[in-house]
């Protein structure tokens, strides 16, 4: 959408608030120069990129720049200015019409801008044809008197402003016979040497006019010299200098001279006689009169001949003019020079030193044994390479040769051009082949590979990468120097393979010395270099033996105080083939119930979780299966199973004593459990003693009872030896506490009554 600043019929608006309709009229002074702003317009085009164009100018001129369009605070500002070639002159053109076109999206409107050029009385400038690109042209006779006024430059106000006028273009001989001059009044004066002999020439002069206050302009003045009337004779050209070949046939044209006059005739005045050249009396055409080769061979002064030619009018022989001609005869080489060698094909090593001379060329010219020959080196493949150079007649190595990069080892195809002056005479083909040299030893990087000890034959461990600074960089072979035959290396790829079996317990690592040998990197195939690196192979341990437990089968009987945990036994396992393996994991995989058994590492613990009555009164047997597996980062994890039968006998005031049998069965035998039980009644020792000796302290009797119990369970449980608080002396008060135990939560000992469950903390 486009919105104009004003009524919809308007395309352009003035910067001021006042709105004018097209077309516009503006006045500009002729003193305004390039860059002057003639008109500016604001536009409003919100949804598109507007375009402002100058369609045409009437009358046609280049004085106006294409209008510019810039954005400022959301509004586009158009501007029309004078171009760098603008030279306004109200006397020449005082009115211009500019056709403008404004485009905003699909909306297009055109309008006219009229520019009136106003006369500036105080402004002086170069005007007329003098200031035009073609310049002012005047014609004068070549017979004009030296120093004569030829032209007057008329500019408005020149005398009033006392302008300075000067010729700024060059007037160098021989084209100019002498310099033209111009004075402050604008008078152009002929050269002091005159213009005789300058007929048909046009002299172009650039004139600078400088006004007061550093103002200036310039223009062009062309002076065309007309020939003298026919009553005077003159040559149309100055004395020429001609060069011809010695192989021109007699009668060949050399040069034609022309003179201005009536019925002109020509003749050679010098040398007389002239055996080598002649001139046409009517046409002035100079021709050869004899073979020039024989004259040069005789050395008869034919190399350079100076001819003096006379032109005169047939009816007035005294009206004459003379012209000097110089004819240079150039020798022609009929036979190409002979060079030794005629062709150069050679090989050089890439290590050839700079400055080494490959060959020296000797050439002679059969046509002229004493002639001077020039030699030039031209490259063909690769072009422009500076590896070789030609010094005088010697072909030398110019730069360091290198074959250690792709495409760097070139075949240098070139030729030696033998010249006489600037004309090639012969060409000597040159082919220089650079051969590689094995300069560097290959190398490889030390590396460490890891492999499992159970890896099979032909297992790939990795590859050794050898590199060589010589090109090609991977042209190497691999070998193992000495070392075990357990491993091999591929000769071409450097891959390391396992050939035999590994045993971590016998050898944990291997060190291989790998030799890297290059090939095909020298012109001589026997020139080979080698390097080496150390490859370390570490064997990773793999479990290949199951652990064994001693004994594999155990049968145990324990007495358990109420509410206490008891160590049952410690599982002892090891791997006979790998005695260094000491870390195992233990887990109960069968036989436990109600979580009464647990493992603390290798120790089997019975947990009595009964906290109050009724307590179990009968013994109970458990057959436990304990899985023992090796642990650690190595896989697989192998395991074995140990069997432990545990008879748990509750410990109270009336205990059925059971004989404990530790039965160890070899791992290859089937275990057989035999239990012999003898039932008898025995009161608690401390209670019986108290009944017999009522005066003895109750706590001593209780401690003695505990000590006797420890002996009966053969050390499987250690009862705490702590003093009891002072007990009452009456027997009835002591009968209430017939047992002792430890609280599993706090670890504190206490006495308890097996019938009532009453406790007394110790």
Automatic annotation (TrEMBL):
Residues 443-553 form the Cadherin domain. It is found in: Membrane. Residues 1-21 form the signal peptide. The keyword Zinc does not apply. InterPro entries: Cadherin (IPR039808), Cadherin-like_dom (IPR002126), Cadherin-like_sf (IPR015919), Cadherin_CS (IPR020894). Its main location: membrane. Keywords: Calcium, Membrane, Repeat, Signal. Transmembrane segments: none annotated. PANTHER family: CADHERIN DOMAIN-CONTAINING PROTEIN, CADHERIN-23. This is Cadherin-related family member 4 isoform X8. It comes from Vulpes vulpes (Red fox).
């Amino acid at each position: 959408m486009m919105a104009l600043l004003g009524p919809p019929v308007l395309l352009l608006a003035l910067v001021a608030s006042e709105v004018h309709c097209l077309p516009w009229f503006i006045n500009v002074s002729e003193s305004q120069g390039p860059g002057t702003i003639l008109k500016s317009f604001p536009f409003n085009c919100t949804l598109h990129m507007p375009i402002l164009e100058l369609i045409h100018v009437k009358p046609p001129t280049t004085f106006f720049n294409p209008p510019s369009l810039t954005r400022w605070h959301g509004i586009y500002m158009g501007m029309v200015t004078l171009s760098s070639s603008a030279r306004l002159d109200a006397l020449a053109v005082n009115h211009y019409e500019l056709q403008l076109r404004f485009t905003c999206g699909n909306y297009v409107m055109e309008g006219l801008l009229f520019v009136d050029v106003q006369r500036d009385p105080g402004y002086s400038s170069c005007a007329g044809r003098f200031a035009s690109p073609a310049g002012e042209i005047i014609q004068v006779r070549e017979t004009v008197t030296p120093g004569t006024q030829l032209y007057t430059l008329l500019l408005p106000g020149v005398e009033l402003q006392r302008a300075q006028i000067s010729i700024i273009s060059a007037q160098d001989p021989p084209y100019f016979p002498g310099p033209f001059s111009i004075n402050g009044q604008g008078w152009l004066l002929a050269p002091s040497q005159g213009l005789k002999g300058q007929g048909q020439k046009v002299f172009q002069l650039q004139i600078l006019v400088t006004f007061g206050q550093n103002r200036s302009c310039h223009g062009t003045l062309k002076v065309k010299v007309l020939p003298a009337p026919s009553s005077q004779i003159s040559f149309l050209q100055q004395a020429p200098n001609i060069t011809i070949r010695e192989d021109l046939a007699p009668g060949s044209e050399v040069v034609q001279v022309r003179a201005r006059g009536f019925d002109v005739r020509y003749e050679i005045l010098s040398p007389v006689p002239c055996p080598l050249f002649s001139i046409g009396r009517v046409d002035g055409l100079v021709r050869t009169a004899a073979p020039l080769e024989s004259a040069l061979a005789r050395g008869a002064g034919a190399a350079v001949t100076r001819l003096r030619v006379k032109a005169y009018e047939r009816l007035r022989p005294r009206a004459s003019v003379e012209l000097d001609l110089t004819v240079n005869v150039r020798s022609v080489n009929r036979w190409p020079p002979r060079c030794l060698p005629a062709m150069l094909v050679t090989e050089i090593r890439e290590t050839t030193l700079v400055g080494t001379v490959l060959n020296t060329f000797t050439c002679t010219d059969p046509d002229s044994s004493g002639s001077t020959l020039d030699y030039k080196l031209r490259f063909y493949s690769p072009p422009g390479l500076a590896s070789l150079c030609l010094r005088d007649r010697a072909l030398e190595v110019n730069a360091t040769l290198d074959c250690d990069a792709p495409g760097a080892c070139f075949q240098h195809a070139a030729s030696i051009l033998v010249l006489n002056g600037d004309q090639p005479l012969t060409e000597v083909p040159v082919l220089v082949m650079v051969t590689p040299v094995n300069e560097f030893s290959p190398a490889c990087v030390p590396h460490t590979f890891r492999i499992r000890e159970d890896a099979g034959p032909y297992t790939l461990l990795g590859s050794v990468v050898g590199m060589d600074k010589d090109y090609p960089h991977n042209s190497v072979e691999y070998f193992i120097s000495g070392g075990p035959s357990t491993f091999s290396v591929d000769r071409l790829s450097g891959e390391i393979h396992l050939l035999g079996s590994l045993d971590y317990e016998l050898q944990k690592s291997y060190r291989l010395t790998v030799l890297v040998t290059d090939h095909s990197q020298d012109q001589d195939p026997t020139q080979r270099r080698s390097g080496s690196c150390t490859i370390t192979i570490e064997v990773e341990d793999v479990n290949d033996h199951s652990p064994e437990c001693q004994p594999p089968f155990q049968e145990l009987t324990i007495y358990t105080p109420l509410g206490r945990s008891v160590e049952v036994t410690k599982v002892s396992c090891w791997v006979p083939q790998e005695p260094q393996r000491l870390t195992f994991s233990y887990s109960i995989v069968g036989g436990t119930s109600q979580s009464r058994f647990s493992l603390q590492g290798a120790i089997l613990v019975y947990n009595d979780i009964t906290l109050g009555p009724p307590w179990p009164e009968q013994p109970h047997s458990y057959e436990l299966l304990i899985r023992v597996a090796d642990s650690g980062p190595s896989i697989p994890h192998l395991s074995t199973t140990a069997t432990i039968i545990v008879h748990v006998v509750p410990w109270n005031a009336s205990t059925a004593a059971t004989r404990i049998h530790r039965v160890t069965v070899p791992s290859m035998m089937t275990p057989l459990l035999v239990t012999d039980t003898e039932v008898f009644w025995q009161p608690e020792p401390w209670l019986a003693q108290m009944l017999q000796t009522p005066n003895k302290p109750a706590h001593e009797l209780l401690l003695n009872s505990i000590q006797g119990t420890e002996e009966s369970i053969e050390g499987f449980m250690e009862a705490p030896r702590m003093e009891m608080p002072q007990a009452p002396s009456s027997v009835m008060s002591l009968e209430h506490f017939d047992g002792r135990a430890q609280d599993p939560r706090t670890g504190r000992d206490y006495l308890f009554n097996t019938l009532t469950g009453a406790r007394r903390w110790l």
